Amino acid sequence: MARSMGPVRLKKTSPVTIVLGTALCIFILYFLIGPSTPDFSASRKATAASHPLSPPTSPFRKSTGSRKPKPPPVSHYNLNNVTVTANPLENRENILILTPMARFYQGYWDNLLRLSYPHELITLGFILPKTTEGNTATTALQKQIARTQKSGQEKDRFKSIIILRQDFDPPIQSQDESERHKMKNQKIRRAGMAKARNSLLFSTLGPATSWVLWVDADVVETPPTLIQDLARHNQPVITPNCYQRYWNPETKEMDERAYDFNNWQDSPTAQDLAKQMDPDDILLEGYGEMATYRTLMAYLYKEDGLLHEEIPLDGVGGATLLVKADVHRDGAMFPPFSFYHLIETEGFAKMAKRLGWQPIGLPNYKVYHYNE
What we know:
Elements: H1 15-33, H2 42-47, E1 94-100, H3 106-114, E2 122-128, H4 132-150, E3 160-165, H5 177-180, H6 186-204, E4 209-215, E5 219-221, H7 226-231, E6 237-248, E7 253-258, E8 264-265, H8 268-275, E9 295-296, E10 311-312, E11 320-324, H9 325-329, H10 344-354, E12 359-369
Parallel strand pairs: 1-2, 1-4, 2-3, 6-12
Antiparallel strand pairs: 4-11, 5-12, 6-7, 6-11, 8-9, 10-12
Keywords: Golgi apparatus, Membrane, Signal-anchor, Transmembrane, Transmembrane helix
Protein name: Glycosyltransferase family 62 protein
Family: Belongs to the ANP1/MMN9/VAN1 family.
């Protein structure tokens, strides 16, 4: 025989449970439709651009509303108000760090994060090739950017970050060190590098930029005070010595060796070689087939020398290079063609000198290149 059920009694919900449930629902709704990035600090809000077509080196905060965006503003800039001094930290001068990147190295990004210069005054600019390797590097770079800019600490977030993709094919496909440094590949390879540098520079140099710091993507170790240390010299173009750490099989311990041979002082031999060349031929450094007998800064390092000793240079490399923005605004770029038989960064040094800006080197101040 079926047993009849009595009336079902519902347990009364307590007011505390209702309040907690309501709060949880509000939190979930805010998480889903709220802004995707953390709010800027007051100092970052003050310099944020109001429109995506504002100067590229200013951070832009996307609108979360459905209103029609405002038309691009007409902005006026007095470049005489942009200071470029030996104390950029005290004067809160804006730094533009530019990096052509074919491969992503975690050590490079970690080193950027360790820079002690206020990140809210630093804009990062990258240009990457449209290759399989370039796509991989772009994905890895964007992952680190998202981690830093969205979930990282406020002090680690940069003012703005710009990523460009090259609109031309790379001259050589392989980025292996042995292939990159073959003498037969140098002219076409460095012409491509010059085009990439110029595209990156012309697309990112803003009216508020005081200094441009070029850092190669395979430079993985610099002093945290790199920007302040180089700027204190108040030189228009200045570069440290680039070395490389490696395992020495003879001593069975870690050692160092010179890496960047594009920082040099010219020689009569090199000048005589240039006179015998066709207009489109270029001089290359570091190759036995073309002995120039230039004075290479890489070999001028002294363990007991003054850290901030300066020497004049006629050619510079791009591993780490601090340039006053006015030098680039004057027209100094990276020639992708033979310029006085020089190309890319060495051609840039020649062009800067022709414009009246003397490049300077610091033989005893070292930065370190990744060892493949």
